[in-house]
């Protein structure tokens, strides 16, 4: 046994002591002991706990790998996420006002991807265990909205008809306006009998929509999401902000940055999370790489009727970013790229006359990299707001406001 004092949390939420020694589920200031294997401490015992140590609220926490930070107070988790953002900024010598983290409440995830596998006795569904491939049943999960929990039983039923004995299926469940919207990957290939069984399962479980490897098998209602004044039916299994609280927080921040703008480009627009609220005072051009998403967005706009003009374009913004000539008509550019960031688009914004950028990011590292480019070209980073839709995980999102000086 060796003893160590934890000095900080790493990016995965594990405690780190001098060495470095990595000690899972420990907190800064704690004195811990355990068996040292290379740099990993196992069989960890907490000798002196932190004042921020709390009893994990979820009964699955010990075995489930879905959450990493339930043993820490909400205040510590919020500060940790703000610190992750600050560290990414300071790596590029960026200084700004980092606002206090906005955290989604427990039981508010409106979408989750469950792993499911057939067993000798039936099927098991849940999240993977901590650092293991074992599926942990999470019947009382405190992350997801309670209305999403029935999806666990649905996932098992679908595995019984549609998965092979050895393979693991991935079942993405989303709360839509008219019930559970289920999208399955990794099941058996579709054939006639399987289609019939899946259509029956849709009825039996009262699903709104069921898709199998991207193909909609049955729909009993409209699997819509509400963005601003529009209802949009996203393609199955597609990107959606994880919680309604997080979505509303991000929308409010984007609206704050775009206040007074008449014409906005919404880049990496998805199905219109930001485009539709922005239509309250601006015309919007939405650009997104996935043509099914832009089709869903356009259909939502047509169905709503009476909204300000919204144009859309399916375009790969890594290979074909909007050019300065195309950008010149916009008062504000909103960018919300995937984890890789938006280097190519940022290079074009620098060459353009765009004065304001609302940058929404799920990766502080690429956000800081792209922002450093903008700042060295004459933009100011006015503020950054961390947004935590993945409470109890080490993940953090953020919005930054950039204006040309
Ligand atoms: C973080 S999501 C944001 C979506 C939307 N803004 C929202 O809040 O719902 C990133 C989006 O970028 C899109 N995307 C990924 N790579 C892209 C590319 N190379 N060009 C254009 N869009 C891309 C994805 O399809 C996804 O919809």
TrEMBL record:
Keyword vocabulary terms for this entry: 4Fe-4S, Iron, Iron-sulfur, Metal-binding, Methyltransferase, S-adenosyl-L-methionine, Transferase
CDD domains: AdoMet_MTases
InterPro entries xref list: MeTrfase_TrmA_AS, NA-bd_OB-fold, SAM-dependent_MTases_sf, U5_MeTrfase_fam
Entry GO MF terms: 4 iron, 4 sulfur cluster binding; rRNA (uridine-C5-)-methyltransferase activity
Pfam families: tRNA_U5-meth_tr
An individual GO BP term: rRNA base methylation
Binding, S-adenosyl-L-methionine: 241, 268, 288, 336
Active site: residue positions: 362 (nucleophile), 362
Similarity field: Belongs to the class I-like SAM-binding methyltransferase superfamily. RNA M5U methyltransferase family.
Protein name: RNA methyltransferase
């Amino acid at each position: 046994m060796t003893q160590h004092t934890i000095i900080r949390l790493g990016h995965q939420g594990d405690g780190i002591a001098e060495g470095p020694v990595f000690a899972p589920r420990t907190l800064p200031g704690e004195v811990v002991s355990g068996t040292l294997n290379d740099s990993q401490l196992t069989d960890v015992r907490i000798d002196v706990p932190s004042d921020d140590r709390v009893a994990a609220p979820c009964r699955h926490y010990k075995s489930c790998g879905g959450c990493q930070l339930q043993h820490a107070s909400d205040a510590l988790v919020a500060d940790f996420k703000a610190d992750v953002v600050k560290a990414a900024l300071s790596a590029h010598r960026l200084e700004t006002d980092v606002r206090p983290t906005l955290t989604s409440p427990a039981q508010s995830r409106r979408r989750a991807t469950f792993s499911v596998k057939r067993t000798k006795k039936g099927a098991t569904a849940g999240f993977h265990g901590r650092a293991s491939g074992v599926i942990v049943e999470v019947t009382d999960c405190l992350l997801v909205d309670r209305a999403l929990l029935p999806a666990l039983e649905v996932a098992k039923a679908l595995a019984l008809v549609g998965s092979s004995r050895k393979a693991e299926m991935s079942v993405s469940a989303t709360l839509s306006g008219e019930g559970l919207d289920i999208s399955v990957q990794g099941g058996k290939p579709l054939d006639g009998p399987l289609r019939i069984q899946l259509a029956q399962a849709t009825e039996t479980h009262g699903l709104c929509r069921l898709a199998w490897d991207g193909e909609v098998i049955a729909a009993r209602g409209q699997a819509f999401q509400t963005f601003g004044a529009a209802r949009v039916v996203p393609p199955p299994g597609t990107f959606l902000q994880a919680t309604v609280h997080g979505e509303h927080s991000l929308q409010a921040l984007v609206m704050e940055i775009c206040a007074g703008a008449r014409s906005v480009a919404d880049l990496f627009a998805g199905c219109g999370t930001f485009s539709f609220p922005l239509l309250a005072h601006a015309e919007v051009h939405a650009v997104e790489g996935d043509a099914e998403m832009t089709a869903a967005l356009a259909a939502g706009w047509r169905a709503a009727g009476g909204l300000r003009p919204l144009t859309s374009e399916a375009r790969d913004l890594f290979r074909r970013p909007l050019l300065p000539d195309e950008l010149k008509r916009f008062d504000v550019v909103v960018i919300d790229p995937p984890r890789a960031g938006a280097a190519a688009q940022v290079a074009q914004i620098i060459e353009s006359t765009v004065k304001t950028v609302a940058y929404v990011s799920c990766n502080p590292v690429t956000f800081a990299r792209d922002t450093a480019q903008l700042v060295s070209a004459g933009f100011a980073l006015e503020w950054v707001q961390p947004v935590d839709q993945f409470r109890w995980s080490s993940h953090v999102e953020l919005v930054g406001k950039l204006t040309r000086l």
